[in-house]
Amino acid sequence: MLDVTGPVPPTQVIWSEQMMAYRFSETHPMHPLRLDLTARLCRELELFDRENVTVVEPHVASDDELAAVHERGYIAAVHEVSANPEVPNEARGLGTEDNPAYAGIHEASARLAGGSIDAAEAVLGESALHVVNFGGGMHHASAGKASGFCIYNDAALAIERLLAGGVQKVLYVDVDAHHGDGTQSIFWDDPRVMTISIHESGMSLFPGTGFANEIGGPNAAGTAVNLAVPGLTGDAAWLRAFHAVVPQLAAVFGPEVIVSQHGCDGHKDDDLSNLRLSVDGQRQNALDIAELAQRLCGGRWIATGGGGYNTTSVVPRAWSHLVAIASGKPVPLRTPVPRPWREYVHERYGIWTPETMGDDAELWWRSWEVGYDPADPVDRSIMATRKEVFPLFGLDPWFD
Fold first, then answer.
1. Selected catalytic residue, list 70, 106, 139, 140
2. Could you tell me the CATH superfamily of domain 11-393?
3. For every residue of the chain, which 3-state class applies, written as one string?
4. pLDDT band at residue 196 under the 50/70/90 scheme
5. Measured by CB atoms within 10 angstroms of the end CB, which terminus of the chain is less buried, N or C?
């Protein structure tokens, strides 16, 4: 478990109200309201006031910085659409229903990307041990195309900056309800990066990828890991799946830094997935990833946001928990949501949010060591992934 009694880690939070310029439209699911309410809740919980926490404004990534993972032609296409949004470039995923074009889309997207590059610089320079960029996590963007509300892949840019700075191995863990396809594609044949994505099966959810047999390129077999769980998977089965795959592979891979994507769209009250998770389960998962970083990487951990479309009742609580965990002092689930914040949301948006920081969910999960149940669809998903990847690292898919 995460040691919350020892010294608190120097932590940075990437945040500026300018990040709210990442706004496709007033009706688009990826509305920056979710970022504003997260920052407001963090302030009300006094997370930004903790002595070990520094709030850092992100810079706008330059074209040269973006070109570390993105094609120059694609960057140019984003510039063109940004200047002339009435002329879409659907071949590049720009000006589509998912990614509507708007004036200034390049700068807004490059600012989110710059935040995660800043996070990598902070870890490399040892000015922070943990960094949270809850405005990042744009994991569907590939090297040459926008996809799934994502223009520039900030997580991939952070990973590439870590590698350029001398880090030998990076573990990327993606727990968004949707497959982290863009990040996987960028590092598909790079043995220095292991991408692990636990997500709802592509049989029922965008982007339709992320199956167990997607294991990486010829020079990096086994470093793409996909755990596709069925729709309706709840906390217990989801946590069981995570613990049956991620810690074992993380330990044998031996990363120096963990970069994680914490899309919270798997929540039962989120309309864009079919999973049945709680804020409690997502908080526990963040604790588990923090513990992995502490045990394997000397604590070095960069955490990003991602999906999450219940913008008032779910996202702010989930990501405030993430900030609290990263800063070394988790917020208990029964902590009251500050009344001024709830009243602001009600007055501004007409919604009364939950009164506590948790959902009062049952989180007990059955350890893999108890046994494999072939009648359980989640267990079958777990076994499919273990059979594909575990032997490549000398692990037994049945027992390790």
1. 140
2. Histone deacetylase domain (3.40.800.20)
3. CCCCCCCCCCEEEECCHHHHHCCCCCCCCCCCHHHHHHHHHHHHCCCCCCCCEEEECCCCCCHHHHCCCCCHHHHHHHHHHHHCCCCCEHHHCECCCCCCCCCCHHHHHHHHHHHHHHHHHHHHCCCCCEEEECCCCCCCCCCCCCECCECCCHHHHHHHHHHHCCCCCEEEEECCCCCCHHHHHHCCCCCCEEEEEEEECCCCCCCCCCCCCCCCCCCCCCCEEEEEECCCCEHHHHHHHHHHHHHHHHHHHCCCEEEEECCCCCECCCCCCCCEECHHHHHHHHHHHHHHHHHHCCCCEEEECCCCCCCCCCHHHHHHHHHHHHCCCCCCCCCECCHHHHHHHHHHHCCCCCCECCCCCCCCCCCHHHCCCCCCHHHHHHHHHHHHHHHHHCCCCCCC
4. very high
5. N
